[in-house]
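As noted in the main text, all predictions were made from sequence alone. Below is one such record, for GTP-binding protein.
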Amino acid sequence: MQPEKELQLRLRFYKTSTKSVEDIIKTCDALKDEVAPDFHIKYMENHIWLNIGARRREKHSPHLHVELDKMEDGNTAVNGLFGPDPVLWTMFMFLHFIVAGVFIIFLMIAYSKWTLEQNFGFDIVIMTLMIGCWAALYYIARTMRRKGIPQMHELEDLMDRILS
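Prediction:
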């Protein structure tokens, strides 16, 4: 996987493993203590969460959510999703909703002033600032993802170790 060339912020991948879901979970359980200081492995049913350990975690550290599905031919479909820390992702979504809400409110105010033939220049300025804020949030997210790419590769190697 080459996250440097992907446009989306939350990278996804799909793989197939010859191991069963139960064998993959057993491998996770066995590997959990071995990688404990550097990585944190959690699993529940057919979901596995791989995180960077607390002593190496940064604000840009990614996590990996892996979903395992049984296939008819006995193999296992592995669906992975890289993402930022859930708390950080929630904060970014909250900020996006605030920016979008302010934009929509000032859009409605500007439209009302336009229909009443009043001056709506200030409202256009605020809407432009909200577009700038959205662009800044996107740039910050891309920068944080770029900083987390080495740890993303580490998580992918750990996942490959679990699947092999």
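The chain has one domain: 1-164. Strands lie at 12-17, 39-44, 47-52, 63-70, 76-83. These features were considered when defining construct boundaries for the mutagenesis experiments described in Section 2.9.
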